[in-house]
Amino acid sequence: NVDAPLSSAALARVIAEVRT
Amino acid sequence: MPVLDRLDPYARLEPVESVTAPFRYFVAEHCLNAAIEPVLLDWLEADAPWALVETDFYEQFEFDLRDADLPPALACLVDPDMLARLRRKMEQALGDALAPHIQMVAHRLDPGQRIAIHNDMREGGETHRLTIQLNRGLDDADGGFFMLFNSDDAEDIHRILRPVSGSAIGFAISPASHHAVSRLHGGTRFTLVYSFFAKRDE
């Protein structure tokens, strides 16, 4: 229900989105 | 709007999974009373007093629930007795004694907004956090994932949680409690954020 299994491309995108 | 007198809006909040590393947290689902959730969503969308807050690492709309003119149907959310029950649930879930004072803020993330990696640590600040998700249903393509990290490195991911409406994560704030919210690409992502303070020895 809650855990999001992301593709490697989607994972790279969300990592870039939260980088500070 | 129905009047839900003396209803415990948090009665269903029970941890379904507790984790100790990289920091102490629990995950719960279906946390809010089923009668409250749609009423609250309607109010958050139509009447809530949102204010845009911009900092160096996030931009979102917020308001403090203690400042808000809540409709009668939602007054139970800030009822001291109900918050005391919620505090006891947090104490049981995380094993720490908490002071009675609780802060409550609503967050709204619109498309394009995100919250970068941070750990919530502030000197003299709150020590425990509970966030409850509310939305009309977000797909993975909409983003807005709650991300947990093993360190302050954004690539060092511990876990990624979908913002399933009614789900919650509670955690003990520490130097290790790194988390973030990925950019929202569609829909609207509401969150109720409760902040608690560890009870100090007198």
Number of domains of chain B: 1
The share of residues in helices of chain B is 10-25%
Helix tally of chain A equals 1
3D shape of chain B: globular
Ends of chain B: how far apart?
44 Å
Biggest interface goes to: A-B, 14 and 26 residues
Q: What is the typical, i.e. mean, pLDDT of chain B?
A: 89
Q: Which value, in Å, is the CA radius of gyration of chain A?
A: 9 Å
- State the oligomer: heterodimer
Structural class of chain B: mainly beta
Order of helices and strands of chain A: H
- Mean pLDDT across every amino acid position of chain A: 85
Largest sheet of chain B: 8 strands, antiparallel
Give the end-to-end Cα distance of chain A, rounded to a whole number of Å: 29 Å
CATH architecture of chain B: Sandwich
Spell out the blueprint of helices and strands.
The complex is a heterodimer of chains A (20) and B (202).
Chain A: H1 8-18
Chain B: E1 15-19, E2 25-28, H1 36-46, E3 51-54, E4 59-64, H2 80-94, E5 98-109, E6 115-118, E7 128-134, E8 146-149, E9 157-161, E10 168-172, E11 179-181, E12 189-198
Antiparallel strand pairs in B: 1-2, 2-10, 3-4, 4-5, 5-12, 6-11, 7-10, 7-12, 8-9, 8-11
Describe this structure in words.
The complex is a heterodimer of chains A (20) and B (202). Chain A is built from one helix and no strands. Chain A is mainly alpha-helical and 20 residues long. The termini of chain A are far apart. With 202 residues, chain B is mainly β. Chain B has a single domain, classed as q2cbj1_9rhob like domain (Jelly Rolls, Sandwich), CATH 2.60.120. Helix content of chain B is 13%, strand content 34%. Chain B has helices at 36-46, 80-94, and strands spanning 15-19, 25-28, 51-54, 59-64, 98-109, 115-118, 128-134, 146-149, 157-161, 168-172, 179-181, 189-198.
Keywords:
heterodimer; A: 20 residues; mainly alpha; 1 helix; flat; B: 202 residues; mainly beta; Jelly Rolls; eight-stranded antiparallel sheet; 12 strands
Short note summarizing the structure:
The complex is a heterodimer of chains A (about 20) and B (about 200). Chain A is mainly alpha-helical.
